[in-house]
Design brief:
The protein is mainly alpha-helical. It is 57% helix and 5% strand.
């Protein structure tokens, strides 16, 4: 059996490496199962529902609190949230009943609205409990996303020497630094 030349072997190796590059996904590779739901969608829907239920809760809650069956739940939603329920058929009465029967359902009005909206945002694709967890995690992530952890000042001496100083050092040096009037930073 004839042996392959070194050039031919190198050529085959280059083709194999090229195949790997073409087969790879742009923007990185996602390990694991593809997500069934996206956190941004659930939080957006929950915020929308919070606004809706904030407006209609005074009419809706007395009817929902008395509902025992799915038919009574549908009737309560049709009467209490008439405008919004007619536009949206995605509020499953079975899901609404399971949320209302949750042992951790709050007692105060604002807490009830938030709990109900966050639980309903999963639309039955995920459990109401997991829907609330997703909303909590995503809101916490958004809250800490854009924080100024530390800011520094670049100071130039009259001799031309430049150096960065954190704010804590400036107070120790008793340096006076003019800050623009509309600056959010105070010294």
């Amino acid at each position: 059996m004839p042996r392959l030349s070194a050039k031919l072997r190198r050529r085959k190796k280059e083709i194999k490496e090229l195949k790997k590059e073409l087969d790879s996904l742009p923007g990185g590779f996602h390990k694991g199962r593809p997500p069934r739901v996206f956190a941004e969608d659930i939080v957006g829907r929950a915020d929308n529902y919070r606004g809706i239920f904030e407006q209609v809760w005074s009419d809706l809650w007395p009817l929902l609190s008395k509902a025992k069956t799915e038919e009574e739940t549908v009737k309560a939603l049709q009467i209490g949230a008439k405008v919004y329920y007619e536009k949206s058929d995605i509020w499953s009465p079975k899901l609404v009943l399971s949320i209302l029967r949750d042992p951790k359902f709050p007692k105060t009005r604002d807490a009830q609205v938030n709990f109900f909206a966050d639980s309903l945002a999963g639309l039955g694709d995920i459990t109401p409990r997991y829907s609330r967890d997703v909303c909590l995690k995503e809101r916490a992530r958004k809250k800490r996303e854009h924080h100024i952890l530390r800011f520094e000042f670049r100071i130039e001496c009259s001799c031309g020497f430049q150096r960065f100083f954190p704010q804590s050092c400036l107070s120790k040096m008793q340096a006076i630094i003019p800050v623009p009037w509309n600056s959010p930073f105070s010294i």
